[in-house]
Amino acid sequence: MRYAHGILIGAVLPGVIFLVASAIKITGIGAAPSVIEALWNIYSIWFVASIALAILPLLLIFFVRKDMFREFLIFEAGGFGLFSPIWLFIATEISGDAWYSILTDGITNGLVGFGPGGTIIGIDVSNIFLIPFLAFSVVMGLIFLRPSFIAKYSYSGELPELTELKDDAVAKEAPPADVEMPEVRPPEPTVDSVASLRDVLMEHGTTDPVINLILNSGIGTTTDLAATSADQLVTITGLNKREAEELLMAVQKKIWFSDI
């Protein structure tokens, strides 16, 4: 669900920006020159407001939920990259022009800038620049929104490679458990235990990227996961401390009450 929410936010923001711009253009069709001039002023204001609309959520997340900032930034950048070309074509079509006209003719007065004397003027966007930019935007959007990319770069914890090196060093220093308790064998993951663990995590609402990170770390049974500390789970998955504790509590309850 968290992944779906991120995709939704990334898709809605560019949609609002382009659809409002399209509504302004539709209002000016057949209007008097004085009305068109007023609409141009409105569009100039909306151009600045749309930039603020893209930046404001990032600032709110940074100050309210700093631990989610990188994840939100990836979702928003990926959403703008993937969905902006789609919304641009839709907005062009509903404003009276063929969607492919921007690929042949570019966009007239698409950007707002300052001219001589500080006056606000419209800046045309050539199709020679627009076509490769849209293609690059879609490619980057697809890369950013891949679950594996989000799972790898959306948290600010220690790199998994460094964690593995530390775990190896601790394991070499500590005496092996089998020497002290040769009769005790740790539970070995099987196909059934991995499937059972996946079912428990899915029941809790854990996303697929987080589930894959847990399984790839060597945790293959519900017992292994229940014995994992919240700090270790934070390092493995990138979840915050509270989410990790809630996940461990759900797994422990599943083990305790599974036979009742």
Question: Which descriptors would you attach to this protein?
Answer:
single chain; 260 residues; mainly alpha; 2 domains; two-stranded antiparallel sheet; 13 helices; 70% helix
Quick overview:
This protein has 13 helices and two strands; from the N terminus they run ααααββααααααααα.
Biggest β-sheet strands, sense, barrel: 2 strands, antiparallel
Specify the helix fraction band: over 70%
Distance between the termini: 30 Å
Q: Please give the number of β-strands.
A: 2
Instruction: Write down the domain tally.
Output: 2
Taken in chain order, the helices and strands follow as: HHHHEEHHHHHHHHH
Q: Which regions contain 5 or more consecutive residues with pLDDT less than 50?
A: 158-162
Report mean pLDDT, rounded to a whole number.
81
* Content of β-strand: 5-15%
Overall form: elongated
- Which structural category do the helix and sheet elements fall into? mainly alpha
Enumerate how many helices there are, as a single number. 13
Strand order of the largest sheet: 1-2
The radius of gyration is 26 Å
Helices and strands in order:
Blueprint: H1 2-27, H2 33-64, H3 69-94, H4 101-105, E1 107-114, E2 120-125, H5 127-144, H6 147-153, H7 160-173, H8 177-180, H9 191-203, H10 208-216, H11 222-226, H12 230-237, H13 241-256
Antiparallel strand pairs: 1-2
Helix pairs in contact: 1-2, 1-3, 2-3, 3-5, 6-10, 12-13
General description of the model:
By secondary structure, the protein is mostly helical. The protein folds into two domains: 2-153; 160-175 and 184-256, no CATH class. The protein is 70% helix and 5% strand. Strands 1-2 form a two-stranded antiparallel ribbon. A hairpin with a 5-residue loop joins strand 1 (107-114) and strand 2. Helix 2 runs antiparallel to helix 3 (69-94). The longest helix is centred in the N-terminal third of the chain and has 32 residues, at 33-64. Mean pLDDT is 81; it is low at 158-162.
